[in-house]
Specification:
Oligomer: single chain
CATH architecture of one domain: 2-Layer Sandwich
CATH topology of one domain: Alpha-Beta Plaits
Structural class: alpha+beta
Number of helices: 5
Strand content: 35-45%
Strand order of the largest sheet: 3-4-2-5
Radius of gyration: 41 Å
Length: about 260
């Protein structure tokens, strides 16, 4: 009877030991498995990349003429200066309209009424002081038009009508043209970046398999060189004003980071 009880006890003991071993092995596997998965995930997310700059340029003809000019008058009273200025400016607007310019192509750049001072020395105190001797009015307008061939006629008509101040004359690109060129050049800049990357990768036996990042630079338009007042006024005094336009070199660039892989 004791022997039978001993056999049962031994069986239960063996069963318990096996159960403990199974639990231990299972726990060990659970502990190791996450480490293996984490290592594989880390290895698979490592990307090889190449960063390349793409550039695109274009030489285009300007399509907008910009002329800034106006009238400066001075009288003893502010009203007198304003009336004198308004009379001259109305004559000037009429004159440039005869050159084919519409009111929608004329904008006011600046308008100013200011006192005019004169300095003198006080005979009693010997101090220098100022007093108002009159008022000045300055009215500057800008003509923006696509009629590029009208530059000489506009300036001549305006000066002959009373313009005594020509600030600048220059050719530029209209906003519509700039927007279209910007889209076209950005596309060409990215294509240029891709071409450069492919040429660099070919001898290394790698190829582009994706794009990680794109950075677009600003659209660069050269600042126009204006014909200033002294030049314009001098040419008008000698006869018809020759004004010529020239092509403008514009550019843009893009920085592209490509994801690459072996062939």
């Amino acid at each position: 009877m004791l022997y039978i009880l001993g056999m049962k006890t031994s069986t239960r003991l063996i069963t318990a030991i096996i159960a403990v071993l199974v639990v231990t092995v299972t726990a060990s596997l659970l502990t190791v498995a996450p480490n293996v998965d984490a290592q594989e995930t880390k290895t698979s997310t490592q990307e090889k990349t190449i960063s390349v700059s793409g550039l695109a340029t274009s030489s285009v003809k300007p399509d907008q003429l910009n002329i800034s000019f106006g009238v400066e008058t001075q009288e003893k009273t502010a009203k007198g200066a304003l009336d004198s200025n308004s009379l001259l400016m109305n004559n000037i607007i009429s004159a440039i309209k005869k050159a084919g310019i519409t009111e929608s192509e004329i904008v006011t750049s600046s308008f100013n009424i200011h006192p005019v001072y004169e300095s003198y020395e006080d005979k009693i105190t010997g101090r220098w002081t100022q007093e108002i001797v009159g008022y000045g009015v300055s009215n500057i307008v800008t003509v923006q038009t696509s009629k590029l061939d009208s530059a000489a006629t506009i300036i001549d008509n305006a000066v002959n009508a009373g313009v005594n101040r020509v600030d600048s004359v220059y050719f530029s690109l209209s906003s519509t043209t700039q927007s279209k060129l910007k889209d076209d050049l950005l596309e060409k800049a990215i294509i240029n970046a891709k071409t450069r990357a492919e040429k660099a990768l070919k001898p290394l036996d790698y190829q582009i398999i994706g794009v990680k990042h794109i950075s677009l630079d600003e659209f660069v338009v050269p600042y126009p060189t204006p014909l200033y007042a002294e030049m314009a006024m001098d040419k008008v005094s000698r006869g018809s004003t020759p004004v010529f336009s020239s092509d403008q070199e514009i550019s843009t660039s893009a920085q592209v980071v490509f994801i690459i892989g072996g062939n």
